Every structure is written in structure tokens, then in C-alpha cells.
Amino acid sequence: MMPKSWFYFIGILLLAASCKLKPLENDKNKTVFRYNEAFPITSLDPAFTRSVENIWAVNQLFNGLVQLDEKLEVKPCIAKSWSISPDGLVYTFTLRNDVYFHDHVLFLNNKGRKVRASDFVNSFLRITDKDIASPGAWVFNSIDRSSNSNYKGFIDVNDTTLKIFLSKPFPPFLGLLSMQYCSVVPIEIAKYYGPDFRNHPVGTGPFQFKYWKEGEKLVLLKNPHYFEQENGKQLPYLDAVAISFIKDRQSAFLEFIKGNFDFMSGLDASYKDDILNKDGSLNGKYYGKFKMTSIPYLMSHYIGCLVDEKLPQTKDSPLTNKLVRQAINYAIDKKKMITYIRNNIGIAANSGFVPIGLPSFDSVKVKGYSFQPDKAKALMLQAGYSEKKPCPNIKLYTSALYSDMCEFVQNELRNVGISASVEVTSSATLNEMVAQSDVNFYRKTWQADYADAENYLALFYSKNFSPAGPNYSHYSNATYDRLYEQALAETNSEKRYELYQQMDKLIIEDAPIIPLYYDASVVFTQNSISGLPSNPMNLLVLKTVKKKNTP
To answer: Are the C-beta atoms of residues 122 and 132 closer than 8 Å to each other?
Structure first.
């Protein structure tokens, strides 16, 4: 039975939900963490955690077998321990015996039941069910569905022992299991609600669902039965989480400045020059008013080149010439671009495609391109282009959000004698054009789905040619493919990292892409907030957050 004070508190939350940003009143004894999402949350079902907005919300409601710490190391969650067979094909997990689903009317006596190994089997089978059509089904592509695993890939040996069988070794697999797609759900409730489980989520997380009016307000309440502790104290510390949905980023920024939001992530052109100096430091007028944190974020921004000479669209394209692609790499002053366009948030990509923040990143072993315009000009001459025989104009395709960055690149190329025009189109159209190999030169990003460089290097494996795979440049190199396949079979992390670095160096040499910068996440929090962890995956973790209420 919920205490009367909670019913009063919930009433206040719901009242606030009906008012766009009216402060919560008479809740001085309750701590409510407030933040805004400019983009809508489309589902609270882990099976559909494709966007950052969905991932952040689902991460508060659900748990998986494992989780990542701030260093991206895999740590226990519902699984308290695990072992991997010597051949890398069988993963055996031992589960905690004290994890319960959130209380719900569909459970016996309205009380959440204990999580069993069979719940993970059912949750994983649900993700791979074609009728569910989860965008995360690919996570289990390497599962062995032979008789070894009862034709399912997963076996619950008993209530606290789970076995997962792979058809071939895949060292990053443990990290994949930390993704929100792999959260455990009570299958009986998921089946009861069907597609509407998106509106009625029941998990094991530190917070439980209370209220959602799409596009206006989402309210989560503290789970009083949560299993994790910190320094002997039960988590979470917060009483509730309230998420608003103001589309206009400038308006949301102003609400943060007023103190109506506790947290703000990312930069927008509408306010970046107000809040930050060009060197990336906080504007002096905001000193002491709130806190700012910036760390590497696993997202590489780059320009891609279609290099497949067999395609009709690359006929007469100068980008099929490696020397031209190398010249473009040398022509761009990436540090200047980051300073003036990004207010120094981000790091110039002077190493490989794999970004800072991943364990295998090594700027000493993988040397990228620095700004050397004279070298760029020399390479263009070597490629056969000069004032008498100028390089054909190259069209650089981008979305409106990055048009200023591409115009900067356009000017840099002009300075070394390369003519380029900028073509702006919608993000959806651009993504489709890139996937279908309809453009030769395009600005794009790649964000990590899991914390392993394989996630990035798969973009250059010849068997991953788009549209079936993510090799948008149609890069093909037999040596690269051999190293990639060797890395997939290597269970020793250090040896695997060495293979990754060799592959990254090949990418730099052959230059099917022009790495621009490695992103950084910038987070602003009110002074009353503490305990908010940061990580290169940009995952919002609220279970350890504390909020000091002010009079």
C-alpha cells in the first residue's frame, strides 16, 4: 500500500504535467529531477530503444544482465557473475536472487515477482520475434539456434543460471548485452499489453512508470524495492523524475537558466555563443550559477567518399583517386573548424576513424592527417590536376544542421585548388541517398551502439557493402578484411586492439573517408545536483543522483 503522502505527491506531479513548466509546489520534502527532451520519446518498450530519447527513459525503468561503468568496462547488474567458454561460444551467467519487477496489478497480490533466468530467455526471444519487429534484433545475429541450445540460442538451466550460445566467437558480445534492447521484461505483462506495452512499461529499474502524456510530460517515481546499493545505501536517492518536451531548444535553454530544469545536455546554435566562449570555457556571466562537464563522446563526424569504381555514379569522379582523397584530408584545418563552429566542443580527428574514449584508441600508433595545405596542393598535382587541368567540381551533400561546417570545408578546399559545392537536403533523404550509393561525397556521423571499435571498423568490411550493410563508401581491401575477420576470432583484448589499430591505419592510408572530429558531450547541471556520472556513451544514469532542495 502506497503511503498517503505519495498520493499527494503524485497529484502534484500530475498537476504539473498539465501545466507546461509550472513549478512543483508543496513538495519540498521530495526530490524531483527535471529535464527536457527536444525530440519526442516514441516508446518506453526496451525493444524500441533506437533513439537517445528512448534509451535515456528506458534506462531508468529497466535493467539487463550487465551494465557499463564510466570507463566503459562491463560490470555486473542482474547477473552477479559470468564465465565464457575457452572457444568463446558459450556464455554462462549467474543471476542475483533478489531482483523483482515493479509492482503491478497484473502480478499476484499486485506485487512484483522475482526475476528468473527464464525471463531473460523470453525477453531475448521477444527481441528476435519478427512479429515484434524490434530494430534491436541484430544484437542477437551471432546466436546459435542449433540443437546445442534447444534451437533457441538461450537456455535457463535453473532460476538463477542462464546460458547463451553463439554460432561463432564475437568478443564484443558481452558489451552488446549492456544495451537497453537486452533489458529483462515480464513476458506475461508484455503479452497482455501487446504493442501498448510501450505505454505500460514494467521493469526492474530504479524508477517505475507513473504518467505519460506524449509530447508534454513523463513522470517516473522511485522504485522502493530497487536491488542496487551505493556505499551500503539503497538506490535511487531521487524521489521522482519529470521529463518535459519543449521542442524549441532556445526556450528550453532559458528554462534551464531560470532553474526550472536540473540538467541540460548538448549545444545548439541558438545559444552556444551565449553560454560558451570560443575556447570552450563557460561564459563568465554564468560562473557559479551552474556546473558544466565535457567528456569524449563516442561519435565520429566525417566526410565519406564513394570509392567503388565499378559503379556508374563514380565514373569520372576524382574521388576514386586515393591521392585526391588524401589531399582533401590535408586541406582541412580541423582545429580551426572546431574552435569557430563548435566553440571547441569536440576534438579534431587527427588520428583514425575510431574515436577517443574507446579502449583501443591510440593516437601514437594511429597517426591521422594534420593541416598541411602545401602537401594537399602537391598531392593534387601528383594526381594530375593543375590550373591548366582543374579538378572537376565535387558536390558535398549535407543536412541543414551541418551546412556551416560543410561551407567551412568548401572554403578550405578552395584554398588548395579543389572546387566543391554544398548541397543541402533533409537528414532522412541524405541517409537514404548514402545508403543507396547515390552520392559520391557526403557528411555523416557514426555513433557507437556498443563500446568496442569493431562497431566502427565494420563500416569498411567488404562484405558490409550498403545498402545491406554500413559500408557506405564501398571500400574493399583484402588485407583489411583478413585483419577484421582475425579480430572477430581474437578473445585476447590487447591482441584484438592491435588488430583494430592496424585496420585503422589502413583506413587512414586509403582515405575512403575524411575524419573531421571526435564528438564530446557537454552537460550542464544545477548546483543542487550531485552524483550524476558521465560516460563516453552519453548514457543518462540517474540512480546515483542526489538533489539538494533549496528553500
So the answer is: no
Reference 346, options 407, 295, 310; nearest CA is: 295
Predicted local distance difference test score (pLDDT) of residue 267: 83
What is the overall mean pLDDT for the chain?
92
d(Cα 512, Cα 449) in Å, to the nearest integer?
22
The closest alpha carbon to 50, from 131, 170, 123, 137, belongs to 137
Cis peptide bond prior to 236, omega within 30° of 0: yes
pLDDT confidence band for 551 (50 / 70 / 90) = low
Residue bearing the bigger pLDDT, 148 or 216: 216
Distance (Å, whole) CA 520 – CA 508: 22
Return the DSSP state at 271: T
Residues contacting 492, CB < 8 A, separation 6+:
none
| Residue 151: half-sphere exposure toward Cβ, Cα within 13 Å | 0
Cβ density class 404-423: b for 16+ within 10 Å, e for less: ebbbbbbebbeebbbebebe
User: How many residues would you count in the chain?
Assistant: 551
Give the pLDDT of residue 21.
39
Q: What is the mean pLDDT of residues 85-95?
A: 95
The ranges assigned to domains in the chain are 297-520
DSSP 8-state code for residue 286: G
The DSSP secondary structure of 482-549, one letter per residue, reads HHHHHHHT---HHHHHHHHHHHHHHHHHH-SEEEEEEEEEEEEEETTEE-----TT-----TT-EE--
Asked if the model's pLDDT at residue 123 lies above 50, the reply is yes
- In this structure, are residues 418 and 332 in contact, taking their beta carbons and an 8 Å threshold? no
Burial class of 113 by CB neighbour count within 10 A (0 to 12, 13 to 18, 19+):
middle
- Per-residue pLDDT band at 266 (split at 50, 70, 90): confident
Render 299-360 in DSSP notation, one character per residue.
EEEEEEE---TTSGGGTT-GGGSHHHHHHHHHH--HHHHHHHHHTT-SEE--S-SSPTTSTT
- The answer to whether 94 touches 79, Cβ cutoff 8 Å, is yes
Contact yes or no for 48/271 (Cβ under 8 A) = no
**pLDDT at 420 exceeding the cut of 80:** yes
Asked whether residue 26 carries a pLDDT value surpassing 90, the answer given is no
The hierarchical CATH code for the domain 297-520 is 3.10.105.10
Distance CA 456, CA 491 (A): 18
| β-strand partners of 164 | 91, 154
Does residue 467 have a cis peptide bond before it, meaning omega lies within 30 degrees of 0? yes
In our burial notation (b when 16+ CB lie closer than 10 A, e otherwise), range 144-177 reads: beeeebeebbbbbeeebebbbbbeebbbbbbbbb
- CA angle centred on 379, ends 377 and 381, rounded to 5°: 75
Buried b / exposed e along 389-401 (16+ C-beta atoms within 10 A): eebeebebbbbee
